[in-house]
Amino acid sequence: MISRKLFSRILPLVSAGVAGLAMAGENPEAKPIGKFTLIYNVNNNGYVDVCGCKHKKVRQGSLVRRASYLKQLRSTGREPLLLDGGGTLFAAAERLKGPEREEAIRKAALIVEAYNRMGYRAMAVGVADLAMGLDTLKQLTAAAKFDVLAANCFHKESKKPVFKPFEIYNAGGVRVGVFGLLLETMGKYYLEEVAPNMQVTDPLTAARQAVEAMRGKTDLIVALSHLKQESNYELIHALKEVAAVVDPYIQYQNTHSWIKEEEWLGVLDDTLFLRGDGQGARLGLLDITVTRSGAKLKPADRQAEIEAALNNGKATEEDRAELAAFKNHNLFQFERVSIEPHHKEDPDLNNLVAEWKKGIDPSKVARFEAALPRKDQFLTAEGCKGCHETVFEFWRQTGHAHALESLQKTSDEHRYDCIGCHSLGYGEAFLDTSRIGNFANVQCESCHGLSPEHAKDPKRFHFKPIQEDTCLVCHNKEQTLKDLEFFTMRKKIQCPKETN
Questions:
Q1: Disulfide check for 407: which of 223, 338, 393, 412 has CB 3.0–4.6 Å away?
Q2: Could you tell me which of 98, 87, 80, 82 has the C-alpha nearest to residue 36?
Q3: What separation in angstroms does the CA of 137 have from each of 83, 109, 115, 190?
Q4: Which segments of 178-277 does DSSP mark as H helices, in order?
Q5: 41 and 120 in contact (C-beta within 8 Å)?
Q6: Nearest Cα to 255, choosing from 228, 232, 230?
Q7: Are 403 and 422 in contact (CB under 8 A)?
């Protein structure tokens, strides 16, 4: 729950969960222009795989998990608007030397094609995106099906824009204007090296021009502003039309790849201030309902909190005044999404990465035609029962066999962020949680993996043994809030040996 005290500060930073499409505290009399889900990330830093924290047992991120998460999110009926705040394709230039440069460019091409397949709509240009030179960036993004935005970048001679300044997207019936800005205070020697024919102008002037060009054509404006923190503060103070700013958290020319949970979401001058972890580890998500074109955003759960206090006769005059202000605003709910192992791996992106590793141009890799190409590879516990009845009966007595019930007790059985660890094959065998069927609960293949030919030839086609990494997919501290005692817990679910 987001408290009034927290939101009254200059930078109150919070994280709140989303349970479904319905927005808490919606005014039933207000007919929405539309609803959509804004999903953003920033400072991907050229990452394709999981984050670089090798000391962690459970590492977040990877394009294949992100794609799986987004597919699962769409299955809930949401219409996402995917935005990248910049610093996307490369790490900092000083990290890329010699042969690493060629591999970095190959990775960047993979990221562009992955973004195409995930359905990204826009990416801002960050300083690191220029690390291989402007010409290389233009060549890479020529294959992009999303817009590359920077309103303050111009050719020195012609004075024409180098990138699109802004674009307007229709998301769930809402006209969302998005503009990008590039850090204007990057070193002049660096800029001369990577983009000698490009001029980076005053971002505030460019932002004003972009907002003016969109005037009357949008219901909501979002800035992908790859500027220093204090520059984004100035932008918010100066441009009241901007509803949200995605900030890369640049302080003293340094970018924060990892930020505290309370730093993800803030409010400054009634404008949302959005941040996120780097390396593709986590995403920010806002479910937004727009009822008033051009109005700012307020937290739906705070409105619901005040209305509950009113109904219970506990609302103060201050509460009533705050609630009255909600009538002039649109509503949002925020969630910080950690891309954990339980999001599995998207088969299409998995194939894309596998082909890329063979040296194939990512844009030339064919997509899977079937939405769930691995569905028929699952045997399910019922399929294993015929030969392993003793194990099946043991499994029925474990918590794994009743995992879905724990969600049903709290009416969370349709939550995309829960169902993957309480079922078999979510995202690969099924997406519609109302038709879960034989895939309910944690089953044999949830832990042992797939071996579709096992029933035909058990001696030849084995299942993999259980390792700690297998369990950490779901039993990790991010999900359970406690460390996994692997050897102790394994005994509780370890299959009995069969005599036959």
A1: 412
A2: 80
A3: 18, 10, 15, 15
A4: 188-194, 203-214, 229-238
A5: no
A6: 228
A7: yes
- In this structure, which amino acid lies at residue 134? L
What gap in Å lies between CA 49 and CA 62, rounded to an integer? 4
**Tokens representing residue 243 in the block:** 């509803």
In this predicted model, what pLDDT tens digit does every residue of 189-222 receive, in sequence order? 899 999 999 999 999 999 999 999 999 999 999 9
Token output for 149: 């935005």
Residue closest to 475 by CA, chosen among 392, 403, 384: 403
Whether the CB-CB separation of 128 and 87 falls below 8 Å is answered with: yes
**What number is the average pLDDT over the span 149-169?**
97
Q: What share of the chain is helix, strand, coil (3-state, %, to 5)?
A: 35, 20, 45
84-114 CB burial, b ≥16 within 10 A, e <16 = bbbbbbbbebeebeeeeeeebbbbbbbbbbb
Indicate the range of 71-85, 349-363, 475-489 predicted with least confidence. Answer: 475-489
pTM (two decimals): 0.84
SS3 for 50-86 is ECCCCCCCCCCECHHHHHHHHHHHHHCCCCEEEEECC
Strand 244-246 to strand 250-251: parallel, antiparallel, or no bridges (unpaired)?
unpaired
Confidence of residue 325 (pLDDT cuts 50, 70, 90): confident
Residues 286 and 330: their CA atoms lie apart, in Å, by 12
Distance CA 127, CA 110 (A): 19
For residues 63 and 281, what is the distance between their CA atoms, to the nearest angstrom? 10
Among residues 3, 37, 12, 40, the alpha carbon closest in space to that of 23 is found at 37
Contact criterion met (CB below 8 Å) for 106 and 353: no
| Residues in contact with 476: Cβ distance below 8 Å, sequence separation at least 6, in sequence order | 57, 58, 340, 341, 484
How many angstroms separate the CA atoms of 328 and 168, rounded? 23
Q: What pLDDT, in 10s, does the model give residues 36-83?
A: 999 999 999 999 998 877 777 778 889 999 999 998 899 888 999 999
Which of 35-49, 179-193, 345-359, 468-482 comes out lowest in average pLDDT?
Answer: 468-482
**Which domains, from first to last, does the chain contain?**
4-342 (3.60.21.10), 374-493 (1.10.1130.10)
User: Within a 10 A sphere around the Cβ of 477, how many other Cβ atoms?
Assistant: 13
The closest of 490, 443, 483 to 466, measured between CA atoms, is 490
In the three-class reduction of DSSP (H, G, I as helix; E, B as strand; rest coil), residue 286 is classed as strand
Q: Kindly report the number of other CB atoms within 10 A of residue 165's CB atom.
A: 21
